[in-house]
Amino acid sequence: MSAADDGAATGVNGADGVNRSLGQLVATATTELSALVHDEIALAKAELREDARRVGIGGGAIAAAGVLALFSLPVLSFAAAYGVHNLGLGLAWSFLIVGGAFLLIAALLGLLAVRKFKKVSKPERTIASAKETAAVLGTVKPHPEPLVGTGRSDASVTRSTV
């Protein structure tokens, strides 16, 4: 590679890449495509971060509902045993009221979890951006860069469609 090639690749001589080799062009295209992929991944991460938070809250609510439902089983068992034994308004009814309260709280937490899970959606902006990028890359036809200041393009480069 000569010094003139280095100058042309960096735009020092005003040619702005006209004399760049095929390897340099491929390297530039690879770098730009890599940056595009990294940007798409960053967009997907940003979209999924909010959904992950919703899933975490919903999962915590389901876990709390399950724990409260487990706590209610011994209480309801004691209440049933005391209720059968006493058949009156005594200690058993208080156990039933406490057990019913635990079940009511568990049901409310379950409803909260269902609402949070319904709000989780697919990363629509990322999908749309990826489709747009694929459409642009599918229809793009390579063309030589024009000379800066001379108004002519490098007609010696032949391109093929992929």
Low-confidence parts:
1-15
For the secondary structure, the number of strands is 0
Helix/strand class:
mainly alpha
What is the radius of gyration computed over CA atoms, rounded to a whole number of angstroms?
A: 34 Å
Which percent range fits the helix content? over 70%
Order of helices and strands: HHHH
The pLDDT mean sits at 74
Q: Measure the end-to-end span.
A: 29 Å
**How would you characterize the largest beta sheet?**
none
Q: What's the number of helices?
A: 4
Shape: rod-shaped
Relative strand content: under 5%
Provide a descriptive summary of the structure in words:
With 162 residues, the protein is mostly helical. Helices cover 72% and strands 0% of the residues. α2 (22-86) packs antiparallel against α3 (91-118) and α2 (22-86) runs antiparallel to α4 (124-139). The longest helix has 65 residues, at 22-86. The chain starts with a helix and ends in a 23-residue tail after the last helix. Mean pLDDT is 74; it is low at 1-15.
